[in-house]
């Protein structure tokens, strides 16, 4: 389980993310400034993986020239 603090106008709020390994589930809940959970959703492993891909920093795509250089070993 991890807490993630909100930013800017949400600085008093947080996300709590819990992974339940045997059940293969991830639960995300939104907590307010008083420490009360206001909403929650449970994700199966496929949706949790899709969320992690969405949140990952974008990878820089190589250019066509870079691809050609890699193919010829330069």
Folded structure, characterized:
The chain is elongated, with a radius of gyration of 19 Å. The chain has a single domain, classed as Roll (Transcriptional Co-activator pc4, Chain A). It has 74 residues and is an alpha+beta fold. 27% of the residues lie in helices and 35% in strands. The chain contains two helices and four strands; from the N terminus they run ββββαα. A four-stranded antiparallel beta sheet has the order 1-2-3-4.
Q: What topology emerges from the helices and strands here?
A:
Layout: E1 2-5, E2 14-20, E3 25-31, E4 37-44, H1 45-55, H2 64-72
Antiparallel strand pairs: 1-2, 2-3, 3-4
Structure keywords:
Transcriptional Co-activator pc4, Chain A; 2 helices; 74 residues; alpha+beta; four-stranded antiparallel beta sheet; elongated
């Amino acid at each position: 389980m991890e807490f993630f603090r909100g930013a800017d106008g949400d600085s008093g709020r947080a996300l709590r993310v819990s992974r339940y390994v045997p059940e293969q589930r991830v639960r995300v809940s939104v907590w307010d400034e008083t420490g009360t959970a206001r909403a929650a959703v449970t994700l199966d492993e496929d949706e949790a993986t899709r969320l992690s891909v969405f949140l990952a920093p974008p990878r820089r795509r190589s250019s066509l020239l870079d691809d050609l250089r890699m193919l010829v070993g330069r």
